[in-house]
Amino acid sequence: MAALQIKNIPTGPGDDIKFDVSYSKGMTKNVIATSGTSPNFAMFGGSSSAYQSVGFGATTDGVYLPGAAGTGGIELTTAWGIRGAFNHNWDPYWSSSLFGSYSQVKYDGGANDNLLGAGTTSAKGAYCAAFAASHSGQALAGNATGNYTCNPDFNVSQLGANLRWTPVKNLTFTGEVQWFHLDQKMSGSSVFTATAPKPNALYQFKDQDTVLLQVRAQRNF
Fold first, then answer.
1. Which of 141, 145, 148, 182 is deepest in the core (most CB within 10 A)?
2. Counting Cβ atoms within 10 Å, is residue 125 exposed (0-12), middle (13-18) or buried (19+)?
3. DSSP E strands: which ranges in the chain?
4. Segment 111-142, tens digit of pLDDT
5. 139: phi > 0 → left, psi -120 to 50 → alpha, else beta; which?
6. Gap between the Cα atoms of 47 and 182, Å rounded
7. 3-state SS record for 1-50
8. Cα–Cα dist 125/82, whole Å
9. Among candidates 219, 148, 154, 160, which has minimal Cα distance to 188?
10. How does strand 94-106 pair with strand 187-192?
């Protein structure tokens, strides 16, 4: 990881610009999250060709390749990301930030590896073989239960802005709006077994977006 902070910029006293870039192999949480565990993504949206659309992003440190045909080892997951923020002080009481990030998570191997006889010799192959066990139609054209190409790679993007009010020292009220985009690499569609609250139906693999609003009051002692 490398980071850069630029101070004394002409927009005002105390303003700064921060950037950091990170790369990992086998330690994905240092790119996707800063907490103890990394998030896995499962997002639903609309679809014109199926009951709904779905986007997956499995965040792992590695994929185990078991079995007689496998290597018996762990293929480490590769990830990289960049984050940045511009912080501006309007006056002693009001400040705001504009921030964003972009990250990629990549698994060893090619899409649908398990269909090429390499199901346990690459991370993608092992992942897709396990996924196909409960989701039929992988790369089978004309299958009544769907036809999809398996690829667990994904990218995530975020862009947001906030406004902070500090009426007195150590008390801050913050309003924040953020856009999140999941760029997943699965394509096609498959029938998913019913899991509350979702029904048993055909789902299309598709990129997903969401917007969130947060309001927070913070008191430091």
1. 148
2. buried
3. 2-6, 16-25, 41-45, 52-57, 62-64, 74-76, 78-89, 94-106, 146-149, 154-168, 171-184, 187-192, 201-205, 208-219
4. 667 765 555 678 898 888 888 888 888 877 66
5. left
6. 16
7. CEEEEECCCCCCCCCEEEEEEEEEECCCHHHHCCCCCCCCEEEEECCCCC
8. 28
9. 148
10. unpaired
What is the pTM assigned to this prediction? 0.88
- Kind and range of the H or E run holding 129: helix 123-132
Please report, as a single letter, which amino acid is at residue 70. Answer: G
Q: Quick check: 85 and 99 in contact, CB under 8 A?
A: yes
Q: Cα separation of 99 and 86, whole Å?
A: 6
Token pair belonging to 110: 């090619």
CA dihedral 64, 24, 188, 190 (to 10 degrees): 40
Instruction: Give the contacts of 192 (CB within 8 A, at least 6 positions apart).
Output: 54, 135, 198, 200, 201, 203
The DSSP symbol for 93 reads S
Which residues lie closer than 8 Å to 3 by C-beta, 6 or more apart? 18, 19, 20, 21
3-state class of 52 per DSSP?
Answer: strand
Tokens representing 174 are: 């913050």
